[in-house]
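dumping the sequnces here before i forget
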Amino acid sequence: MKNNWWKGLAVILLLYTAAAGFLMPVPRLAILNETIRNLYFHVPMWFGMTFILIASVYYSIRYLRNPTPQLDILSHEAAKTGILMGIVGLATGSIWAKYTWGAWWTNDPKLNGAAIAMLIYGAYLVLRSSFTDEQQRARISAIYNIFAFATAMPLFYILPRLTDSLHPGAGGNPAFAKYDLDDNMRLVFYPAVIGWTLLAFWLAQVASRIATLKLKVYEKQLV
Amino acid sequence: MLKDFRLEWRQRAALNGMLLYVGSTVFVCFLSFSLKGGTPPAPAWNALFWIILLFSAVNAVAKGFLQESRGRMLYYYTLVPPQAVILAKIAYNAVLLLGLAMVGLGLYLVVLGNPVQDPTLFVGNVALGALGFASTLTLVSGIAAKATNSNTLMVVLGFPLMIPMLLLLIKVSKNALDGLEFEASQSSLLTLVALNLIVGAVSYLLFPFLWRS
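..and the predicted 3d for all of it:
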């Protein structure tokens, strides 16, 4: 129980996010209106994705230093969770875009960047499936994972800042200064970010436990 | 390292093939546009040029590792440290792509007209692009060479990784086409240089691990 306090925290924070996110007062802004509540669900996805992908790269680096199947499973499952968060982020963003900008998909640098990042990580999964030898698969996908992270992150955090975007915080501004987050919204937004990030780590942990068990069962069958 | 570079240079069988590849692609573009009469508008000109460069870069670099036999890799392994190999490969690919890009650009200008208003910026941008493509694709081709279906994998892995670079390149070359002053493209150019450095450094660090298998 001592080591699992963060799971309880995740549950509490997410319940709080769901309740407070829909019930607390929000500022009345033109066009956005009530859709601003999506901020508590759409934006934390990207935070969660970034953190879980950093974890994935961390395990990949550790795998290269000290190759064990466990580290490979951890980095693979973390990357898969990152992809899941990214897809949910795209979906919530798409719904938001429909009701504020009037289209499911627009030619916005952040949208394109996110889509390309999903392609990069899709390629990671394809790469993994094209090896038969397990050790080689683990090593080479770890290498690609690190490489992909180094080229994909500029897509999220540098390129959109250089061009005009429909998103707030584009064109040289830091992301939050322009967003008139009032104090009420902050009270929900920061817990939401932490809650979703913890949930991502929880998902990755459960998924890698399942993968480890499958590996053990498989090894037993071989004997 | 120089010696390694020379080793690469000696087996430049692919070079003539690549030159023909670029030449015929440009010519096909010219023929398709001449049906409508005259040169394409500047944005189309720009997009087409980068698409040609992208595909010829992927094809040219893919040859580097895929054609390498296992025995020769082992031979290199006994001679030099892996860092020298990756640096030499990147340098060779950069020179190769630079040459291809310049020849392609020359042909392209001849047959499809020259709307570029700031030639120095444009050529500098193309050079940066060749360097960036070389450093990204060299490691990707090394990775793809290890897998079973390497040719498909090369494209699947390489294209998304090159898009950030490509977006910046197209933006700067659009600026050069329109003859905007240098300040307009300065930040993009800086980011491009930084991106090249990151990719180069990461390949340098990761290649020794890739090579061991």
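Residues 169-178 of chain A have pLDDT under 50 and may be disordered.
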